Amino acid sequence: MTKKTGKEIEIKRIDHRDYTGLLTGVSELLEQARHAAARSVNQILTATYWEIGRRIVEFEQRGAVQADYGTELLKRLGTDLTKRFGRGFSWRNLYLMRTFY
């Protein structure tokens, strides 16, 4: 329904059938955007964790073919990263990142 005011401006009333379609469409768009964002974040985190693993391996090996794998480096790095970035960087997670690489 359209209502005209004295200034000839049209004010449209919301038809609830049309509003339901609008709400559904906007909701679907937001869900798609959230899923796409989550996929992008997952891809970036996967690449980041692989790169962290690579850097740990290269630091441990220092040019050698095989490293002396000890947990002291991972414990120290995990402690320092946890202080700076919060959860997710325990020595065990760093070990898994190194293994992933």
Tell me about this structure:
The chain is mostly helical and 101 residues long. It has one domain (10-100). Helix content is 69%, strand content 6%. It is built from three helices and two strands. It has helices at 16-61, 72-85, 91-100, and strands at residues 2-4, 10-12. A two-stranded antiparallel sheet has the order 1-2. A hairpin with a 5-residue loop joins strand 1 and strand 2 (10-12). Helix 1 packs across helix 3 and helix 2 packs across helix 3 (91-100). The longest helix is centred in the middle third of the chain and has 46 residues, at 16-61. It is rod-shaped and about 80 Å long. It starts with a strand and ends with a helix.
Looking at how many chains there are and whether they match, the oligomeric state comes to single chain
Lateral strand order in the biggest sheet: 1-2
**Cα-based radius of gyration, to the nearest Å:** 27 Å
- Total strands: the figure is 2
Secondary-structure element pattern, one letter each: EEHHH
Low-pLDDT sequence parts: none
Shape: rod-shaped
| Distance separating the two termini | 63 Å
Query: What does the main sheet amount to?
Result: 2 strands, antiparallel
